[in-house]
Design a protein that fits this description.
The complex is a heterodimer of chains A (109) and B (122). With 109 residues, chain A is mainly beta. Chain A is built from no helices and 11 strands. Chain B has strands spanning 5-7, 10-13, 19-24, 31-37, 44-50, 53-56, 65-68, 75-79, 88-95, 112-113, 117-121. The chains are: A mainly beta (109), B mainly beta (122).
Amino acid sequence: RKEVEQDPGPFNVPEGATVAFNCTYSNSASQSFFWYRQDCRKEPKLLMSVYSSGNEDGRFTAQLNRASQYISLLIRDSKLSDSATYLCVVSRNNNDMRFGAGTRLTVKP
Amino acid sequence: EAGVAQSPRYKIIEKRQSVAFWCNPISGHATLYWYQQILGQGPKLLIQFQNNGVVDDSQLPKDRFSAERLKGVDSTLKIQPAKLEDSAVYLCASSPFPTPGLAGGGGRNEQFFGPGTRLTVL
């Protein structure tokens, strides 16, 4: 079983739609959680950290469920510029990072 | 602020040849990572340095891959000899000395990635 698993997609949604991505992790000792965004042929960039209480940044909402070892990312009012691959990242000790394979999102006009 | 620099950007070699990649992290960042990203997959951590010491190299294929970070700044990653399955993008990332995570997760240990080196092994 992979340490971090994501639905690979692709998710094809119209502009303005709400879309949710899920991620599960296998190591219960994991402590830190992140969502990174990676555009085609570009390097990953941090989108947001994920906190136990859930957190929101504009149109993006991240949730963590430790009991189920599950992380989610919700994007509201999708924009064309949101088209990218979204990588779920889990860290055990704030040093090492384990990336999921990513979920590809395409937002269409 | 200058970002993470990597060179070369592209490299094409034949199998069994050797290749080296170079990374210059953001100034002052203590932690440096090398990742391998195969097409369609997420980045896979190969090795992590904190200053010039190795923190994690559990996923580094040590029979052919080696890395060093002399003086705790620049780093090089070498593959010798290369195999076809080594074709990938090699990403270097750096982060400031990690601070303890907030209770419940979500530590602010952001990694800043370089543009990567795209390696093709023929």
